[in-house]
Amino acid sequence: xxxxxxxxxxxxxxxxxxxxxxxxxxxxxxxxxxxxxxxxxxxxxxxxxxxxxxxxxxxxxxxxxxxxxxxxxxxxxxxxxxxxxxxxxxxxxxxxxxxxxxxxxxxxxxxxxxxxxxxxxxxxxxxxxxxxxxxxxxxxxxxxxxxxxxxxxxxxxxxxxxxxxxxxxxxxxxxxxxxxxxxxxxxxxxxxxxxxxxxxxxxxxxxxxxxxxxxxxxxxxxxxxxxxxxxxxxxxxxxxxxxxxxxxxxxxxxxxxxxxxxxxxxxxxxxxxxxxxxxxxxxxxxxxxxxxxxxxxxxx
Length: 300
Ligand SMILES: [Zn+2]
What we know:
By secondary structure, this protein is of the alpha+beta class. It contains 10 helices and 12 strands.
C-alpha cells in the first residue's frame, strides 16, 4: 500500500482537482514522531496539504515548505514537499493532547492556535517565493483555502482529514484541492458547491473504502472531466551523513573547542526523520583540516 496523488481536470480546463490519499505517509509520521492523537491530526493534515501543494511545483529540484507558527501549545509545524508530492515534517511538541473541540473532533485549531503561516517555494532562483497569511482557524484546510484566495488569487477549496484510532495511529488520511483556473464556467460553480457540501469528510470516505476515482467523481458530478495523472507519494527525508558533516565543518573554532572539551563523539539528530549520525572528534578535525587545505588551495 502506498500513498497516492490523483489529478483530474474538467473538460473545458476550468476546474482542476488534486486528490491525495496520505494514509501511509501519516502512519509513517506517527511512527517517527510518536504523535499524540491530536498531533497525529495536526501533523497529518499539514503533511497532506503540503503534498497537495508541492505536487503543483514545476521542476524536479523545486521544494515547498509549509510552516505554521501559531501561539497554540504544539508550537511550530514545519513540512517540506518535493515536486512529486513526497513530504516530511515535524512539530515542536508532538505530545500535546487536548480534549475534543465543541463539535467533538480532535482539536487541531486549539493545538495550533493563531499566528502566521508561511508557504515558501524554492524554485531554484536566487530568492525563494515567500507567501505569508494569517492563521484564520488553525484547522489548516480553512487556512489554506484563505491563503489561496488572498495570496495566490486562485479560488480554491481545500479539504484535509485524518482519522486516528485508540493507539493514536492514523487509519485514514487524505485531502483535496479544487481550484478554479482562468476561463472557468460560472455555471459550474453552484454544481461544484452543491457536490462538495453534500460530501462526507474526505477521511471518512477513505475509511469507508472509497477510491480516489470515486471521490473525484463525487466532487465533479455533473461536470465533464478527465483523469489527468496518478502517482505514488511517500514520507521521504533526503538527509544524509554528508550534510551534517558539512554543517560541523562550518562550525567556528570556539564551538569546536567546546565539543573537544566535552570529549564525546558528536551526535546529530534529523528533526524530520529521526535519523542519528555520530561523528568522532578525530573525524571532525581531519575533515576540517581537509576543508581548510582546499579553501587555501582555491585562494592561491
Ligand atoms: Zn532526515
